[in-house]
Amino acid sequence: MDASQTNATLNVFLVEDAGAVRQRIADALSAIPRVAVVGEAEDAPSALDGILATGADVAVVDLRLIDSSGIDVISGLSRERPEVVKLVLTNHSGPAFREACETAGADFFFDKTSEFDAACRTIEVLVQTRAARRAP
């Protein structure tokens, strides 16, 4: 892979407590050209450490995590690395959850059950946008 391809790659970090679901998301995102899943975590502290260590461009975050909340991840990233795109993908999609995520700094919010394909399409658009910005 040459440098221009590397720069066009969108690095994604997954934050999801359920291993099987995390694998499904990783498989779907890895099938998108120029997307690399660079790390995974199942709790907020590991997620924040991993996202910062990997230099991820996007964090795909569930709200229910082991001993923590995805809102903690979103809030932490909003303070530490606001440029990271925070995409919530959760089964907890009621208005109160959406509002809490927006307040914490989420960029996108999707219901895992009914909007999974829309979340993947959003990642595709982010890849295309990144590639267009880097084109000579």
UniProtKB/TrEMBL annotation:
Keywords: DNA-binding, Phosphoprotein. It comes from the Bacteria. Pfam families: Response_reg (PF00072). The modification 4-aspartylphosphate is found at D62. GO terms for molecular function: DNA binding. GO terms for biological process: phosphorelay signal transduction system. Residues 11-127 form the Response regulatory domain. Signal peptide: none annotated. The keyword DNA-binding applies. PROSITE patterns: RESPONSE_REGULATORY. This is Response regulator receiver domain-containing protein.
